[in-house]
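Quick question: what would this complex look like in 3D?
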Amino acid sequence: MNQVYVHEQLIRFSHCDPAGIVYFPRFFDLAHATMEDWLAEGVGQGLPALIGERRIGTPTVSIQCDFAKTLRIGETLRFELRVTRLGNASVQLGYSGKKQADGEEHLAIRQTIVFMDLAVQKAIPIPADLRPRIESFLAT
Amino acid sequence: MNQVYVHEQLIRFSHCDPAGIVYFPRFFDLAHATMEDWLAEGVGQGLPALIGERRIGTPTVSIQCDFAKTLRIGETLRFELRVTRLGNASVQLGYSGKKQADGEEHLAIRQTIVFMDLAVQKAIPIPADLRPRIESFLAT
Amino acid sequence: MNQVYVHEQLIRFSHCDPAGIVYFPRFFDLAHATMEDWLAEGVGQGLPALIGERRIGTPTVSIQCDFAKTLRIGETLRFELRVTRLGNASVQLGYSGKKQADGEEHLAIRQTIVFMDLAVQKAIPIPADLRPRIESFLAT
Amino acid sequence: MNQVYVHEQLIRFSHCDPAGIVYFPRFFDLAHATMEDWLAEGVGQGLPALIGERRIGTPTVSIQCDFAKTLRIGETLRFELRVTRLGNASVQLGYSGKKQADGEEHLAIRQTIVFMDLAVQKAIPIPADLRPRIESFLAT
């Protein structure tokens, strides 16, 4: 329990807007990359095989983000990912987005994903082989 | 009062993911395009001049989205944009994202932007020349 | 013969980089949108149905671009699209990218696409029902 | 002389299109990331400081790409970057894009960048402190 998945990404030229700061929709792309690596490394089942072999997807049903401070090109974003709620088919993920240099939180994301059978496009219970490892990231 | 800004966008190849549906971070990019055209056409002050000449930006401080149904390549997304709250420096925008073909709501976004003096990176009151037209979109 | 497909797109906030000009990879995305609309309107067969119903894709096998001048947020890019070479399975497209305001060419793209059977991932002859209309855009 | 800068990137969900392969404009974004890391690590001068402190940019004036084979989600792209031509103000970069798993070349890019004084938007000679290290990557 209480594991935290830490993922760092460099803020690149392509993430930034004419004001020189990250264009906010790209933070969701960066968060998705964090989720992908968490699934592969933290949960032990990467998205490519989950989708390609097991035909299970993890669509996002809701997401919420507060942007407290900006990030600029050349800075490093450090996401700390926790599971903040665990349902039957759904997982709520909490991302604390910090500037690596000083550890201050610049943004915070809450995202709810569901496990979905891609063939019939219906939500399914979290696969039994994945649930214990997902649960190990549950914040208490 | 009670104006609604309607903006339609074709879902393109580049918006869609390996599951053939819109990759959710791109909805925020599509919503940003709607906001840009609303500023230009609805409010009468486009972002290029606002940023370039007046040195005022409109960064997003929080955003929330519920995704009820997917959208696919070739479908048309119709955003209906309203002002859902009006502060001194901030504007909360509500986007109802409908599938144009049947008018059903597929997603809903709440976004709070602030007007910011780009030179000093501080929030400023909504410019007096823009406030009345922004207010005309306030949902009551 | 000698038809030209004209397609205009507003340069948006999200296309631009910290230097305030279009980040060059986005020009290929803008060109792809032009190709999509040309297929739908100029050739009479849109990509969604081509992929979804006929299971035919149009992957790019080579592309070349010269960037002579920049484009900025708020400007309108006007692509003039011609077919510059027509093979058995391949089509070479030439895009002249002009700034709409003054008609000057800012960039020029040459792109070769092939028609591909998506089931077997092999090139196929240009579908007979599409060839005459594609040929009508051949520059002579 | 003859140094090669090697840079590996995971192909992610967001890079892929409805056909499950990388949407080609994103290869240019991936190549740009390689160039950014090469500037920082290979040349010793990262783009953030180059732009932000020295006010020098490296816009792309031409680019050419051949796509021989596709790449899919979960595969790793390995770019091998060389300098293929060195001018007074310009550098031509050659990227051999290999699938890391088998070392086969899937795409090849030629890109010409120029060093530019951002204040006056004019090309300038390659900065003297950077030229020797850039030259060390020149393929002979």
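Answer marked as accepted. The radius of gyration of chain C is 15 Å.
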